[in-house]
Design a protein that fits this description.
The structure holds 2 protein chains of 2 kinds. Chain A is mainly β. Chain A has no helices and 8 strands. Classes of the chains: A mainly beta, B alpha+beta.
């Protein structure tokens, strides 16, 4: 079960850029590893991460097998108005997870 | 007669496993990008445009003990206004199975062109970050990372 963790400040000054920290539990199996009997372990990674602020996309990332297990991504955005941040992770084998965070702009 | 047949079968089995083992070894060694493949991956992104050094700060530790989780930070020097901002940041490596690490898409709403994540490194190598600005120019930074314990290649 993939459990996302989001860290955003509770209150931000209008017009100020603030940092968003995200983490989701996922094996991020590279597809380049073998079992001891020589069988290739199939790839199972998160391929796309995106974040939208009140419905408008503000950040997107294409991930590769080079990203460590439990992908941790941080980025910035400018506080414009009160609202919700929506996070989406899409990956192999139909993996899809969402999370939301609310932001208060003063 | 029966015994000869059995012998032939055994020889076939031995030969077969030998070839199989060899093929497995080759396929394991093939799973490595080369500096040339990294340059090709960069070409795919930037096209014919020139990539200049500077404006990008690549933050990776110079020596890592465990290649499975390496902290990676990229900061691009940009005012991040509606007319002058960072569009994308790409990170590449030379010696992992694939040259790509991450591609992020930003906009003027980012406010600050700074991202961080954690990535894997299969060997001691050079990491490259390239940023595309809104005016279409490309800027880059490189960093050498020494890896003691490699990622990606271990068996379970």
């Amino acid at each position: 079960m993939a459990r996302p963790l989001i860290n955003v400040p509770a209150k931000v000054k209008r017009g100020r850029a603030f940092e968003i920290k995200t983490l989701i539990s996922h094996v991020m199996e590279t597809g380049y590893r073998y079992t001891t009997v020589g069988a290739r372990i199939p790839r199972d990674i998160v391929t796309l991460f995106s974040c939208s602020y009140n419905g408008e996309e503000i950040f997107r990332a294409d991930l590769s097998p080079a990203i460590s297990a439990n992908p941790f991504i941080t980025f910035f955005t400018v506080a414009t108005e009160n609202g919700t941040l929506e996070f989406k992770w899409t990956g192999d084998n139909g993996f899809f997870e969402t999370a939301t965070a609310t932001i208060t702009v003063e | 007669m029966g015994e000869r047949k059995l012998g032939a079968t055994r020889r076939a089995v031995v030969f077969g496993s030998l070839v199989g083992g060899l093929a497995a070894t080759i396929s394991v060694e093939r799973a490595r990008a080369t500096p040339a493949q990294m340059r090709e991956a960069i070409r795919n992104v930037v096209g014919a445009a020139a990539v200049r050094k500077g404006r990008v700060e690549l933050d990776v530790p110079p020596v890592v003990e465990n290649g499975n989780t390496v902290a990676l930070g990229v900061t691009v020097d940009s005012p991040m206004t509606a007319t002058d901002y960072v569009k994308t940041i790409h990170v590449f490596n030379e010696k992992n199975p694939q040259p790509n690490v991450i591609s992020v898409y930003l906009g003027p709403r980012a406010g600050k062109a700074r991202i961080s994540t954690r990535f894997r490194l299969a060997d001691t190598q050079t990491v490259t970050a390239i940023a595309e600005m809104s005016d279409g120019t490309f800027w880059s930074a490189t960093a050498e990372v020494i890896v003691t314990l490699a990622a990606c290649v271990e068996e379970l």
